[in-house]
Amino acid sequence: MKHLLSIEELDRAAIERIVSQAERFSEVSDREIKTVPALRNRMVLNLFYEASTRTRGSFELAAKRLSADVVNFTASGSSVEKGESLKDTVLTLSAHKPDAIVLRTPWAGAAALVSQWCAAAIVNAGDGKHEHPTQALLDVYTLRRRLGAIDGASIWIVGDVAHSRVARSDVLAFQKMGARVTLAGPPTLIPREIEALGCEVRYTLDELPSADVVYALRMQNERMEETWVPSVREYAAWYQINAQRLRPEQILMHPGPVNRGVELSGEVADSPQAIITAQVEAGVVVRMAVLYELLAPNRTGLEPGPVPAEGRTPESGTDDLAPAGARGAGVGEGQPA
Ligand code: CP
Fold first, then answer.
1. Which end of the chain has fewer CB atoms within 10 angstroms, the N or the C?
2. Average pLDDT, the chain
3. Is the CB of residue 54 below 6 angstroms from any atom belonging to ligand 1?
4. 184 contact partners, CB below 8 Å, separation of at least 6
């Protein structure tokens, strides 16, 4: 895999490979020393044109846990404010030779475009309304840990589907993992062509009790140029997931950030049924697995292995996940990235 641009381009085997790798990284995260040398001498550039708390923070932590060098770039405060284009920004920052660029933009298709402009592996961290593949991978990871298997599960994704890249990536990922997906929300917020993805559509929550998993979406006010619902109050009255609508045995998910009192009541957001914090926690190990898949495809082994013989390259060992610092002093230093 050269880039991660969308869930559309992954098959079930690729999703399972990344999720299984994330599970191995989860074991690493339980160790006292959580940093491993797998991506030593590699550079990850986080290039964010849109606000982010979860994705940016977890990509940074993931890269650092793998011992990569990390450069964080946000459009705000940069020469983008002087009018520098996306292409010139990418070409400029590519002069530092990043091995991977994690890119978030408000433009659908931007990640695919950038992948043609530079040699780095591109990770789509959200491109407009198109896709957010690492969110879907961490959702699969979180749900698989909770349910054991996703095959046959009924997952309802409720809310502002029209403006949601998470919805599109999740529909694809959940279905590839064998789930039945239903999208629900007001007709104005459900794109007409969406059933072509193989999911069902409902405009009321009457059948919500049949769901095993309820996945609430954020109302994306920043992407709405016109009024899509009569009022927030009316939206909440019809579509808010609250204690009256959520059955005790249903699992509640949300990608964050949550608009409390709009798509979720505070009561259910804070309930034990909500696995929103587990989703955030999964973000680090899943993004470690994605960076590892892209930048260290030939590496194997998770157990703390033997200290490598002097002169072995970081690429040649099976001990890339041994705690960082377990290597002999200087081993791997100065090797080509
Ligand atoms: N779920 C998600 O993408 O959150 P952030 O916008 O905070 O990264």
1. N
2. 89
3. yes
4. 156, 157, 158, 159, 190, 201, 202, 203, 204, 205, 208, 239
Atom 5 of ligand 1: nearest residue by CA position:
52
Nearest residue (CA) to ligand 1, atom 6: 52
In 211-271, the DSSP E strands lie at 213-216, 251-253
- Residue ranges and CATH numbers for the domains of the chain are 7-132+282-306 (3.40.50.1370), 133-279 (3.40.50.1370)
Q: Is 255 close to ligand 1, i.e. is its CB under 6 Å away?
A: yes
Give yes or no for residue 46 CB within 6 A of ligand 1.
Answer: no
Render pLDDT for 287-317 as a digit per residue (tens, 0 to 9).
Answer: 999 999 999 966 654 444 333 333 334 443 4
Residue 332 has pLDDT above 60, yes or no: no
pTM of the model: 0.89
Question: Residues of the chain with pLDDT > 70: what percent?
Answer: 87
- Cα of 201 vs centre of ligand 1, distance in Å, is 25
The neighbour count for residue 302, using CB atoms within 10 Å, is 19
Of the ranges 162-171, 203-212, 263-272, 290-299, which one carries the lowest mean pLDDT score?
290-299
**Contact 135 CB / ligand 1 (< 6 Å):** yes
